[in-house]
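Design request, tokens follow.
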């Protein structure tokens, strides 16, 4: 049964860190995979999972850079190559994961791009949707047997408060019939991440595979690489002196909710919810808050199922019962 979209009594909150939420949790004998686990909050996700004893497979577009960025992370960390814009690379990485593990206990689909100019992959798919959603859809589908074999796996889909921008149009997912808008495209991709978790949890519950969507919070990371400083000032991320908004989280704080969803015993038997600040998020009120809350469209089971069907058609993959 899908969990109610309402907060629970969590001991953690806005400023909790990824190491805070794994304190006292033993992941020895567990295998985790984190996409993009070498940049921004991804590094801190990997650090926390490894500190708790998990074997962590880091799927990285730039393995050499990942090796440098993760050099100070203690524990069992292995780096694999993954380009989420390339279906062949996705299949190859999934094959490598399967060669290293009989079961996958934690999958955190973290890698993303944001607000980039219009680009398309070799299939003609818009890049933000292709990388952030379709790439992870294919990767998860390929890892599905390992997730089922784990006997109690969790999949975490890193979404964003950017889902409130929506932009999701099932009849024009790749901006072929409407003007491209980089923020609508981002909102569409992040909405898709949340809807993916919603429907995956429906399919996975019978196999003890539960899925969660996560808003990590505002964090200054390389994700903003396509934005000018003036754009970020206009959005209130920096002031005129170039000082970061104090409401932004550190990477370790931003990683906390994804790690909490992947590991917290408070979520045993739960799934299919959108989480933020180390808790299940609350539906938006009226007027909606600027930086938190769950918009209704990402809780729409019919929309999630429709997106799932489109994703199966575009990737040529289906999740076996």
């Amino acid at each position: 049964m899908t969990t109610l979209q309402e907060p629970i009594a969590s001991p953690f909150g806005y400023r909790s860190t990824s190491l805070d939420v794994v304190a006292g949790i033993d992941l020895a004998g567990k295998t985790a995979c984190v996409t993009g686990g070498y940049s921004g909050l991804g590094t801190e996700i990997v650090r926390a999972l490894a500190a708790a004893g998990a074997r962590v497979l880091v799927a990285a577009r730039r393995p050499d850079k990942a090796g440098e960025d993760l050099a100070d992370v203690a524990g069992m960390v292995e780096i694999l190559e993954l380009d989420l814009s390339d279906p062949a690379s996705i299949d190859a990485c999934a094959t490598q994961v399967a060669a290293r593990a009989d079961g996958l206990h934690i999958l955190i689909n973290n890698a993303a791009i944001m607000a980039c100019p219009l680009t398309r992959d070799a299939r003609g798919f818009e890049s933000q949707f292709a990388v952030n959603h379709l790439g992870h859809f294919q990767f998860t589908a390929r890892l599905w047997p390992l997730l089922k074999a784990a006997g109690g796996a969790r999949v975490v889909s890193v979404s964003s408060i950017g889902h409130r921008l929506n932009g999701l149009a099932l009849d024009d997912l790749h901006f072929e019939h409407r003007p491209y808008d980089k923020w609508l495209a981002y909102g569409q991709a992040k909405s898709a991440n949340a809807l993916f978790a919603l429907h995956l949890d429906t399919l996975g519950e019978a196999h003890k595979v539960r899925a969660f969507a996560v808003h990590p919070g505002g964090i200054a990371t390389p994700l903003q690489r396509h934005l000018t400083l003036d754009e970020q000032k206009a959005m209130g991320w920096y002031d005129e002196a170039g000082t970061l908004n104090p409401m932004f989280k550190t990477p370790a704080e931003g990683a906390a909710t994804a790690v909490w969803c992947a590991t917290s015993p408070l979520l045993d038997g739960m799934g299919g919810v959108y989480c933020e600040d180390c808790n299940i998020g609350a539906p938006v009120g009226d007027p909606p808050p600027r930086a938190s809350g769950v918009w209704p469209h990402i809780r729409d089971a019919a929309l999630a199922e429709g997106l799932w069907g489109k994703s199966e058609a575009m990737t040529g993959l289906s999740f076996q019962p």
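Comment from the thread starter after seeing the answer: thanks! The CA atoms of residues 96 and 185 lie 31 Å apart.
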